[in-house]
Amino acid sequence: MSTAKIARNQVATFLLLAFAGAWAVTIPLWGSGFQRTSTTQVDGPWVQVIIAAMMATPALAALAVTRSVRAVGLVWPRGQWRHCLTGFGAPTAILLLSLGLSSALGVFPVDLGHVQVGGILLSYLVSLPLFLGEELGWQGFLLPRLLPLGTWPALLAGGVVWGLWHAPVTVLGAQYPGHPPLVGLVCVLVSTVLIGVLIGFLRLVTGSVWPTVLAHAVVSQLAPDLIKAVSAGGRAVDPLLVGPASVVSWLLAAGLILVLRKRVGESGHPARPALEH
């Protein structure tokens, strides 16, 4: 553990604002009786607006605390284009491997005959500002301020916080439609810890949030769009069996984390640019 101290007041204020904001903006969903029951369900415009507003709350909370864009990782260090390619390419490769394994296991029938790659990529690009809202908070603000705990505890804690923050929509079936709320909450926590560690590692290596924004958008935007596009007959899938939040992806992510942990050591950290505090 580092001898540096966590800025407890800053972190506590940030968490209060981010969590309170998430619950506040989703009140209309609760009041309307909204429930996501299937991965093929199309959300109305008002639902999309509410989700977009929720995604902005971590950034707004971080900026309210720091009043500085540099203090939340909004920088462009040298060589960032290469890191951005990694931010897009690495999670995309893991996604494709995961979908291939799910298909081989017989839980994800695939039809590649009608895939509109251009449309999927366009949707991905348009979504990036939304994911910047989350990443400025989680990886830009929170992760550097948890590093006094040690690299791996900070990464794990960040993943837990990220998962708990999703609770207002998780219990409404957002990530695991068709499953009981408690199952959804537990599965989201597993997913955010595993995915969060990998995205956080990218933040530490690059010193910027831009690659993490690209990675997050692959997981939460490109992946669902691709799954819908290649699912045979357009049938609904179980996110617990197919996709970046599936058991298959959990195993792949856990394996990669073990490799990274062995490479950098249990309490060490990857070589990285200095992070703005």
TrEMBL record:
Pfam families: Rce1-like
UniProt keywords, alphabetically: Hydrolase, Membrane, Protease, Transmembrane, Transmembrane helix
Membrane found in the keyword field: yes
Listed GO biological process terms: proteolysis
Source organism superkingdom: Bacteria
Transmembrane residue ranges: 48-66, 87-108, 114-133, 154-176, 182-202
Domain CAAX prenyl protease 2/Lysostaphin resistance protein A-like: 121-219
GO molecular function terms attached to this record: peptidase activity
The keyword Cell inner membrane is annotated on this UniProt entry: no
Protein known as: Membrane protease YdiL (CAAX protease family)
Gene source species: Kutzneria viridogrisea
